[in-house]
Each structure stands twice: as C-alpha cells, then as structure tokens.
Design brief:
The protein is an alpha/beta fold and about 260 residues long. The protein has 5 helices and 17 strands. The strands form 3 sheets. It has a 9-stranded mixed β-sheet with strand order 3-4-5-2-1-6-7-8-9, with helices on both faces. A 4-stranded antiparallel β-sheet has the order 10-17-15-12, with no helix packed on it. Helix 1 crosses helix 5. It is globular and about 55 Å long.
C-alpha cells in the first residue's frame, strides 16, 4: 500500500501511475482542497464524493473500514486527514508527501519503510528516504537519494512563451464566483471570475485548464486559475506531462528501495 499526502493534480498523477503499476493507493486530503486542475485531481472527490481520472476512480472514504472496502473494490480511497494520523493504522509500505507546500508539513522518515518527498522542503536521507525533483527542465522527475531538490523559484513554468500571464491570481481576499468552466475557450480580456467584488481578467487567449472551486474563500495573491495557450481542450481533462514525469520518478524510487 502507498499513502499519498495531497490530492492535487501532481499528486493525482503520481497516484494514477502507481495504481496502474499495481499498487494499492490511499490519498489523504484536507477538508477544503484548493486544487486548480480539479478535473484531474482526486482531491475533488472531497466535494463530489467521487471522481474518475483516465479510467481510475477515486472515492471519498468515511473511515478506516470504508478505506479497506474501496481498496478491495479496486478504487482509490480519498480520506480527510490533513495531519496523516491514519497512517499508523494503515501501516503502508510507502508514504509520499505530495502536498507541494514548498515546506515539510509533518512527514518524517520514520512514517513508513519507504518515505518520499515531492519537490522543495525535503532533504533525502534526513526528512525522507528520497526526493523527486519537480522543477521543469532537464532534471524534472529525477530521483535524489541525498540532498535537496531545486528551491522554489516562484516563477510559473513557460508554455508557448507565457509564464505569469497564463496564471490567474486572486486580486484580493474573498469568495470566488466563476463565469467559465474548465475546458472552455477564453479570450484575452474576458472576465473569468470574481473574487469578492473584483474581476479576474484573462491576460491571454486559450483553454481554461483549471479554476478553483466556486464558493471557496481565497487570499490575495493565491493562484486560482490557469489558461493554456496551446488551445487543446483535451489537455484540461488529462494528466499533464509534468505529473507523469514526477509519477515515474516516484515509481522508480519505490522499486529501487524495494529491491
């Protein structure tokens, strides 16, 4: 069994790859996930009871017995446990911290026989057994058995020459009201959503690849949406190249340490 802390799009790409490779996977989430790419995030089961991503179903679990039932049925349980308290009861072979908080929120090397940190905030051999690189570029998905991954640059990855322009951020504190759905084509200048009374305007044209769930309260500056200038609708509903690469790194690390 593998327990993954976090159920956002990158964590879900990891979960999908491990599930398809034959592992039993359990995802731990918080009560109000802030995933942007909700169509490919198992965390969305927290709101919708279940979600299917590329043929793999994630189902919200109520308790330990429910987790075991969902696993037996051949699905991925999504359980509300931001602190990871149920890990001791599950006794997994592997714990993967894919919260992507840019810091360690409580994962220790003693949690399981194999512990893996995803992205900045971890040191291989100290906090966890290994770390998987999340920074786009030559080393994306690399497995580190010692040391730390590249620090968080705070700069979005480049897509067709666009970086910050493709990201939608909250202009103030407030509740989100959406005017478009994931997968919709939008034009530069369109009002994509509101936060409180302030409009969030698209800076570029493309497909709305992700937007935070309507009705959630967000803080100023938080990333709440993502426009893909490649204009391919299918990209909004499938696992990204980055998530697949990171998932491959996690799978490699597990198999290497099992050996």
């Amino acid at each position: 069994m593998v327990v993954i802390r976090g159920g956002g799009d990158l964590a879900s790409g990891i979960a999908h790859r491990l599930f398809m490779a034959g592992f039993k996977v359990v995802i731990l989430e918080i009560e109000k996930p802030l995933a942007i790419r909700r169509t490919v995030s198992f965390s969305h089961a927290v709101y919708n009871e279940e979600i299917t991503i590329e043929g793999v179903k994630g189902i919200l679990a109520k308790d330990l017995q429910d987790i075991r039932k969902i696993l037996k049925e051949g699905h991925i349980p999504v359980y509300l446990d931001g602190m990871g308290q149920i890990i001791k009861e599950l006794k997994p072979l592997v714990v993967v911290d894919a919260i992507l908080a840019k810091s360690n929120l409580g994962t220790t090397i003693e949690l399981a026989p194999i512990t893996i940190g995803v992205g900045p905030g971890f040191e291989a051999g100290v906090d966890v057994d290994l770390v998987v690189e999340t920074k786009r570029g030559h080393y994306l998905g690399q497995v580190l058995y010692e040391g730390k991954p590249a620090p968080n640059s705070g700069i979005p990855g480049e897509v067709m020459g666009y970086r910050e322009e493709r990201v939608l951020r909250a202009p103030c504190d407030g509740v989100v009201k959406a005017f478009y759905n994931i997968g919709d084509k939008v034009e530069a200048g369109d009002i994509i959503c509101q936060v409180g009374e302030k409009n969030v305007v698209a800076q570029i044209s493309g497909v709305l690849r992700g937007i935070i769930k309507e009705g959630l309260f967000v803080n100023k500056g938080l990333k709440i949406g993502d426009i893909d200038p490649r204009n391919v609708i299918d990209h909004a509903f499938t696992i990204s190249d980055k998530a697949r690469a990171i998932g491959g790194g996690v799978l490699e690390g597990i198999l290497h340490l099992m050996k």
